[in-house]
Amino acid sequence: MAVNTVREDETLKTAGKTVTLLRLFRYLLSYRKMIAFVIFIMLLTVGISLINPLIIERAINVNIKNNDIEGLLKLGAAALVMNVAMILLIKLRMYLMARMSNDVLVKIRNELYEHIQTLSFSFFDSRPTGKILARIIGDVNSLKDVLSNSVTTLIPDFITVCAVVLIMAVKNWKLALAAMSSLPLMIIGVLIVQTKSHARWQIHRKKSSNLNAFIHEDVSGMRVIQSFSAEDETEETFDELLSEHCGSFVNACRFADAFGPVVDFCWGLGTLCMYYVGVKMLGTQAAPVGTLMAFGTYISMFWNPIMNLSNFYNQLITNIAGAERIFEILDTQPEIADRDGVAELPEVRGEVEFKNVSFAYDKDTQVLNNVSFQIRPGETIALVGPTGAGKTTIVNLISRFYDVTGGAVYIDGHDIREVSIESLRQQMGIMTQENFLFSGTIKDNIRYGRLDATDEEIMEAAKMVNAHEFIMKMEKGYDTELKERGAGLSIGQRQLLAFARTMLSMPKILILDEATSSIDTHTERLVQKGIDALLAGRTSFVIAHRLSTIQKADRIFVIDKGGIVEQGSAKELIEKKGAYYELYMAQFKEVA
Amino acid sequence: MKKLSSYILHYWYAYLFAIVCLLLQVGLDMLAPQVTRRIVDDVIGEGAVDLLMPLLLTIFLIGVGRCVFGYTKEFTFDYVGAKIGMNMRRNLFRHIQKLSINYFDNTNTGELMSRVKDDIDNIWSAVGFIGMLILEVIFHTVIVIYCMLHISVKLAVMPLVMMPFVALLAILMEKKLDKVYEEISDENAKLNTVAQENLAGVRTVKAFARERHEITKFLSHNKRYYELNMRQSKVFIRYQPLVQFITRLLPIFVIIYGGYLKIQGEISLGELAAFTEYANNIIWPMEMLGWLSNSFASAVASNKKLKKIYNEKTMITEKEDPVVLPEVSGRVTFDHVSFGLDGKEILKDISFDLPAGRTIGIMGATGSGKSSIITLLQRFYDVGEGEIRLDGVPIRDLTLRQLRKSISPVMQDVFLFSDTINSNVKLGKRASTHNDLVRRALERAQAKDFIENMEEQYETQIGERGVGLSGGQKQRISMARAFAKKSPILVLDDSTSALDMETEHQIQENLLGFEGTTKIVIAHRISAVRHADEIIVLQDGGIAERGTHEELLEIKGLYYDTYMAQYGETLAQLNVQGA
Question: Which of A339, A381, A529, B457 has the most CB atoms around its CB within 10 Å?
Fold first, then answer.
């Protein structure tokens, strides 16, 4: 699996700009009616603002000319009323647009987040958390203005341009052609600029994501950094990332900033052509001053919206890079997913079977090779063997964190790929070395095991795993707020809380992967007693290095070289004098 | 904290340059209508066709000039904005790295991320494009007002009276938005925190099949974020149209009052027409004011958040004239040390004297305070009572750098960086550590074999926090990292918990080779501490038992119990077999 690190740019699979754009606009489709209404409002307000000059014209031509102060005041009153109406309309439009763009933003973010929850470990393992976060927060935020502007700019300005072109063509098509002659030039210019700038904005987004990932890692690993006095090094790396980030922005601006001037230039060129054609070809007689003057006005009415449109386009190009990154995640298929129409796994009795299971994380390294075994309900199986032999892989396959590459895993005779993941995992209790605690109270953390558990049940679970005592010693007991990842608690205490959480879920199959490694021997025994009492008769898998932890298992599997090399009870295996015996003797070396 | 203005003033020359470009652009803008007027008046009106080409050429040149100056101006502002943002971010990062661990223990990663990233982005855009627009607005307004005053002082009273109202509205709105933006910034941080936690704990989420619960949690914050954004919009909608209203009325009032003046014969019709034109010209800068104060409010709110971080005092401070030891030999003394946190007593009256080159073993139940001893020694927290000394010097008198450089920790909670194995081992001494030393360290940590089996060996990229490696592999790399640091004091905090017996045994043997290194070994396994010169057993933060392995077995206390729990059955079975 290729791992993307903080400093490396992500590789991005994009569908192309147009597809991305259309997909983005599809979110607006469900607001068709609202958008139509907004456009209607905008037409009204434009209409009113066009009347304003007429009022002024009338004031000058009629009232002032005739020294009619009363008429002048009446006109003013009319204008006042009209403008009040306009302001109300504008308020309404702004409100509707704010609602729509915020709505869509929430929708996209939710969709993205929900989709991320379905993705498999390979997705999370192959990139730094900070980079995923950058997409959920930053990239989604970057779409806000684009969404609202696409309604308020795109549609009205497009209509204006078309209308002006029509008017000009009707008035004098030769002059109209001349005025618009620079349009192709502008389109070519804008296209060149946007191709370049789009590629550069993509790079900038990646650099921004790198920066986010670095900050995330740095803050998470601050204790190590300070312990190793590595602040100078991290500052150096940060500075590098920072200047790449800043540099990529400046690089993108180098092109993006040319948008305005290109349009501006073509605007000037169009005016120029118009006067030239007007004077040279039509002659001073054929082109009356009035028409030319009017065309001057029309030219700015034509180019102003074009300027707006190109600004909008520029903004679109800047932010489409964010949309691409969002859609890329949405298009990532989870490797482990429910098949269509899967059944719920009925209550588990605890029979587990591996039938010719093979597994490889990637093509080259085979971790398990044709492994078969059968576990009876209620059996405790210990997995031992050197690090990296595949013990964790076996338990990962049972909980379907990965899918087998060959053979099948059965629970109570059900191929686990034929049942829903949720119904499978909810019946399993999985404890690993990494016990993640969430910020929130101790109570809430334990309750994570079973969301509808009562306070009494929570306390009961904590007592079972010997966590109750230390919890009660804390100032607020079960209501103590935990810090991020349980900082402030010892690792052993964190393991105990995680234990309580798992116990509360009353799993039908329990998997303990080095779950007691940071707990002292005395406490471990107490915990073990609690587990035994609570989960009597349930199937369990135990991975541990301390032989004292595994000796009581019904069967011990010695895992090595991609398979089970030995199995049997502790006693049988010692008598066999094989691989287990050697592990055992290693311990003996220490005692003697 | 450096003031925002000082960041900006640092680039005064660039701003000056941009302003000159802006002025030239505006100047050319004013020139263009003059040329057009001549085309209309002279060429078309008077028939001076031979003037056409030169005039058109002038228009063309003016256009080119406008583009060049416009581009330069915009690019300069973008450039300066980016640089200022970069400088602010750099300084903030440096400040954050200096904060003490208790700050990080109490602040969520997601929040800090959004401060360094999003809040600075907000300020960045303010000093970039908002800066540019403010200047444009000011120039434009000044020029227009000047022209208005030139035509009629009496009429100019109207915009002059109106402008303070617009400014007042903008200020009021800024004040209101400022508060909303502060909340938005906080909610953004929370959103970041919730998502960050979910991603970091994804294994736990999936193990409990709690995806739906997580989504609900996120949705509620996302909803709150939406509501706050709507609140911002509502404030904006309350004020901005009012600003528009006032500015749109201006031309009408001008016409009415101007018409009155005309009727009274105080001004001419032409003057009134020109004045109206100018009144129309002042609309956009005034309307822009609302937008500007919106963005400004967002930057101000973010700046407040940064101020809070800057005001954070580091709890651990260095003495003004610290002692600098020429060489650290590695003697560690705890002198009646007590320590508590959040009102909870963690360590009580701990004393030991560990001569240089010796080993101390620390055992004790979960939560008995073992790791706190290390935390105090590294001065991540300060002792409550008593004193810790390094080579006889109180550690409070040393520089943090020298103190921490003297200690190589292998922490219980392994943290590896997403980088190559090689760079991970070199942490803190990137420039001076030779690859051979990296290899030797990894060999001593029993990591060489599995690394050399990897395709890219020492250059293998590992994932965040070491994702992709097994717990035992991570522990061994983190051990090698400490070995490569070559400090006089080596701390092993439960560092072999995920290793199999054989590997652990090898490492214990290798550790014996670290002669002259002071070792502090925290462990649950007897095998890890039995060779120590002194073993202390902690109970509820105090020392319950102390002595050598043999002495402790003699007294048949806690240590003996642990020994029997770990080896009793093995011993019994061996006896059975022997018999």
Answer: A381
Q: Give me the pLDDT at residue B36, please.
A: 72
Residue A247's pLDDT is 92
Q: Indicate the residue of A63, A433, A521 with minimum beta-carbon distance to B562.
A: A521
Burial class (CB in 10 A: 0-12, 13-18, 19+), A472: exposed
Tell me what ipTM this predicted complex has.
0.86
Q: What is the DSSP string of B7-37?
A: HHHTTHHHHHHHHHHHHHHHHHHHHHHHHHH
3-state secondary structure of B491: strand
pLDDT of residue A508: 85
Q: What is the reported pLDDT for A457? A: 86
Nearest residue on chain A to B222, alpha-carbon basis? A106
Chain B environment of A137 (Cβ under 8 Å):
114, 118, 188, 191-192, 195
B residues 487-526 closer than 8 Å to A (CB): 494, 497-505, 524-526
- Cross-chain residue pair A59–B485, CB shorter than 8 Å: no
Two tokens, residue B212: 């739906």
Å between B62 CA and nearest CA of chain A: 9
| Count of alpha carbons within 13 angstroms of residue B282, beta-carbon side | 30
Q: How far apart are CA A463 and CA A470, in angstroms?
A: 10
pLDDT recorded at residue B347? 87
Q: What is the value of pTM for the model shown?
A: 0.85
- Distance of residue B99 Cα from the nearest chain A Cα, in angstroms: 10
Residue B579's pLDDT is what? 44
CA distance A202 to A252: 9
Q: Do A387 and B450 touch (CB under 8 A)?
A: yes
Residue numbers in B near A433 (CB within 8 A)? 471, 498
Contact A438, B197 (CB under 8 A): yes
Measured distance CA(B296)–CA(B390) in Å, rounded: 52
Task: Please count the residue pairs, one from chain A and one from chain B, whose beta carbons lie less than 8 angstroms apart.
Answer: 476
Which residue in chain A has the smallest CA separation from B454?
A: A365
A466-520 residue pLDDT tens? 888 888 888 888 888 888 787 778 888 888 888 888 888 888 888 888 777 777 7
Q: Which of B90, B109, B574 sits opposite A216 (nearest CB)?
A: B109
Q: A118 and B211 in contact by Cβ < 8 A? A: yes
Least confident of A7-21, B214-228, B347-361: A7-21
User: Taking CB atoms and an 8 Å limit, are A518 and B494 in contact across chains?
Assistant: yes
Burial B439-472 (b: 16+ CB within 10 A, else e): bebbbbbbbbebbeeeeeebebbbbbbbbbbbbb
Nearest residue, CB atoms, A106 vs list B44, B105, B226: B226
**Looking at the DSSP assignment, which residues form a beta bridge with residue B546?**
B536
Question: What's the pLDDT tens digit per position in A550-582?
Answer: 777 888 888 888 888 888 887 788 788 787 777
Name the 3-class secondary structure at A363.
coil
3-state SS of chain B: helix, strand, coil percent to 5? 70, 10, 20
Is some CB atom of chain A closer than 8 A to the CB atom of B187?
Answer: no
Residues of chain A contacting residue B465, judged by C-beta atoms under 8 Å apart: 220
Write out chain A residues lying below 8 Å of B112, CB-based: 215, 219
Could you read off the pLDDT of A299-329 as tens digits, one per residue? 777 777 888 888 888 888 888 888 888 888 8
Structure tokens at B445: 């940590």
Q: Which of A87, A117, A586 sits opposite B214 (nearest CB)?
A: A117
Tens of pLDDT, residue by residue over B513-529, are 777 888 898 988 888 88
Q: Alpha-carbon distance B192 to B395, whole Å?
A: 38
Whether the CB-CB separation of A468 and A459 falls below 8 Å is answered with yes
Percent of chain B past pLDDT 70, that is, above it, reads 96
Taking 80 as the threshold, does the pLDDT of residue B568 lie above it?
no
